[in-house]
What does this fold into?
Amino acid sequence: MTDPLESAQAIQHSGPNAEPRRRRSWIRRYIFTTDHRTIGIQYLLLALIAVIIGASLSLLMRLHLAWPDLPMPFWGVMKPEDYLALVTMHGTLMVFFVLTTAPQSGFANLVLPEQIGSRQMALPLLNAASFWLTVLSLLVLVSAFFMPGGAPISGWTSYPPLSAIAASGPGQALGMDIWLVSIGIFCIASTLASVNMLTTIVAERCEGMTLDRMPLTVWSWLVASMITVLVFSVLFAAAVLLLCDRHLGTAFFVPMGDLVNGQIVGHGDGTPLLWLHLFWFFGHPEVYIAILPGMGITSSLLANFSRRPALGYRLMALTTVLIGLLGFLVWGHHMFVSGMNPYAGTAFALTTMAIAVPSTAKVLSWIGTIWGGNLRLTTPMLFSLGFLSLFIAGGVTGPLLALPILDAYLHNTFFVVAHFHLIMAMAAIFSVFAGVYYWFPLMAGRQLHEGWGKVHFWLTFIAAYSTFFPMHLAGLAGEPRHYSQLSGGAASMAALIPLQRYISISAIVLVAAQLIFLTNLIWSVWHGKLSPANPWQATTLEWSTASDGQPIVLRGPYDYGVHPGQSDFLPQDALEPNPE
Amino acid sequence: MPLTIFLAVIALCPGLSSLVSGSQFWMPPNAALHGIAVDRLMRLNLTALGTCFIIAHLLLLISILRRPRPGASPKILPSMWAMEVIPLTLLCLMYVWMAITAQRLWAANRFEGPSPAAMQVEVVGVQFQWYFRYPGEDAAFGGTRPELVNAAAGNPLGLDRQDPHSADDIVASELVLPAGREVDVTLRAHDVIHGFFVPAMRLKQNAVPGMVLHVHFTPELPGEYPILCSQVCGLGHARMQAKLRVLPRGDYALWLAAREAKLHAIQAARVKAQ
Amino acid sequence: MPVTFTRTPVDTERKHTGIGGKPPASRRPTGGGGDGDNWDGQRGRKGPRQLLTRWRLGVFFALIGDMMFFVAIVSSFFVSQAGGHFDPRTHNYISTWRPVSVPSILWLNTAVLVLSSLTMEMARRQLFREIDVMEEWLGMGRPALRRATPWLIATALLGGIFLFGQWLAWEQMWTDKVLLASDPARYFFYLITGFHGAHLIAGIIALLGALASLSLLRRVEYRQIVVDCTAWYWHCMGVFWLFLFALLVSAQ
It folds into this structure.
């Protein structure tokens, strides 16, 4: 059995690694390693485990929603608190452990150093430390399921006083503490990871790699890391304050005279809105942490597979930075109906409309890049096009939800669920898939099977739309999220149950389609087609075949379509070919 | 080329809009005065954004299906003017239009308070129940204190019986309103954040413990409408529902009189017991 | 600007070469020192300053994150200060915020902390004196170590005195029956001093580590890195404290 990682390194480091590699024990090479590429793979595997758990939880939720009386295997009929615990854990796993780790830490560790012409992260030990902290955080989070009372039920946003008072529901005692501790560890881990990434991008670029020659992936990792450093400490502070409220008798978030379960628990002038502000000051930029790397990957891949430069490179870099900056000013659009001053609602509506402008510019530039290009419809390209389609689908409802008067109807309905699942879950995951198909040769030295990749794409694409698009209709009909059953006064919405059943079946297909991907992944690690050194004929440096020491960058990142016919691309470090 | 398609679809827009304007876009029938404008705005915005979605996907599809002319240099990209500047300007104008129209409606709805003649109702969210309080003849709510809350003893809101204003307060578990009169809703919560959501009234506002919030609306059509909780509030969140009954004015007066009579009977019984 | 060695002409030429600061290869200097100062023969390393720059940047970015932590706490402070509730009987808006009078010992502590920042800076500069560094690098004794150690010990001691002073302030408040869970102004007094104290404890641990590393680490640049990073952290905690103290004083 060949060692996949070794063959990958053989491709990559044939030159620079000419010096004899010191053999290290298996554990030092694969587990407690400081090699950025292995850490990248570890992050991706961690995200894979988290996404498997998270998706299983969502399937249980979907089954319960469509067939409320159906007994679950090993469980029996689901209780409402179980449903809410599933919601909380699904959201937490997906947002933190999948959408924050995979696109940013995973792919950035895998290729970022090479893309800027370095061979390592600036602070490798810190890198490994932050990965293992992330693992610890995941283990702590999952352990919440096994606490007395189960996992917390207050959703991934954990609004107090529900999250501040142990008596307010099952899972809000020890389960909630565990959740907060896990999030605290995650905050530290991702901040450290981003510190490392920022340092790498600032200090480790090779000769000639000026800012305006950085691939757009690097731009997006740069901005996403800046956001991470700035917002995760705020979430950490909020979690610490909430823990103080829970155990030290302070009252930051619990108001005077708060009466839970017949007990007066409020003894100070806290306000739940403070948590909302702190949380969403983190929470909205977090969305951009999840989606910006996907945007960068898409920009790079669309240029590569259209064999032409990305349209408006400088504009794309600028809009990435603008989205990052404006992302700090829009958190209030989660709070239009929260009791925030309505004038503040107007202000946040305007900043949110403003952020639509750079996002629109990005979409236009992507369409312009592929418009009239000679597209190579490989699997990574299909997933990038899928990202584009889903980003548009999820994006168009963004400006609608940014309008307070319309959000006052749609807030916390399935319309919002559709919006953020299309853009944040599906679009981001499609960019992750694109990245995995594209960079798999760097991980395993082999390519993923193209045919099965295409089957995987089409099934996933169709199932994604068929799962999340109908949710808009349920939302317009007024169905709230977090409802485990439609009964009582909401029985008028019982007409929506067939729709929800349809969505559930689509969700099952969506998850089942991922089995193809998993099989392809495992099979290809050992039996996939051996990859040439630069299988996608890419220009960026992670595919560079130059063998001597540090590369020297001579041109921008997307020099495609230069000599049609023969070699139509110029890697960033390649010398100009002879005119003959 | 992309510009032509863009303009062509824009031209088709009014037709598209009229096609769907007849339906309610899946929304439940509107019964509130301001809901007409909200629905209209929703329809316009959904149509505009749906059109953008369709145009973008047409462009995507054409890009994928169309092969470049042989001999055309692949390096020549579409011009920034056609692909970026003009469409972006048009879309920005659309965003500005969306922001302004929606903002005007929001301002009319939330910046201004209710008219002084508006009827007063207090809505209180408690895990997992909505309570509705009418101020009675003195048009003033009596004081409440959390220590006095005792649902089993018939005082779920903790009414302070010492307060003269509280004597005529009516507490109900369904919201009954007269059609055509503006209502000033005072929102409170006892324990955790709840979301007061009346889909048919196009109304949603969180009830936050420690805060007293106001929203106002005018129910127009008599009928029964569900009231839901839209902010996850604990294990009974999904069953935290109530009913809104909008009655013609005469029926409402009858209902109120019946509730007042009941209240007087209870008070008389209490006095006798003492 | 402390550097391991004096700035060479190559370094000067590297400045102002367009966006991003790294020159395009066409203008890459050749000849003496042109190998990116790559004189320790390590792959991917561009000399000792590279490593220092890296760590320093890392500490700066981490400190920006840390700053946001305190920004969040201070924002919460202002929100709580403005908070209050309606009295159910009188319908008045009343606040339970009773300002804390800052124990006067904090003024003394602040002075001690400022002093410790000065000693820290002295220690840091000792490690970047060109003659001493050159001597150490050539293996001719360790003059920088000899010079820096007393300053480092002084800093650690002053830091300890500051923490002890903070503890005295807490004790003073306990005897005044001002407990954590009494009212928001108190929570914040304890939280702010507590979090800052925790950061300083980490700083003192780093200082002790730096002291140990001065004799344990074999390479000059490693010793420089340890002391330099600790120093920037320490200065930053000093600056944070000045802001936090100003906040506490202004709110009393």
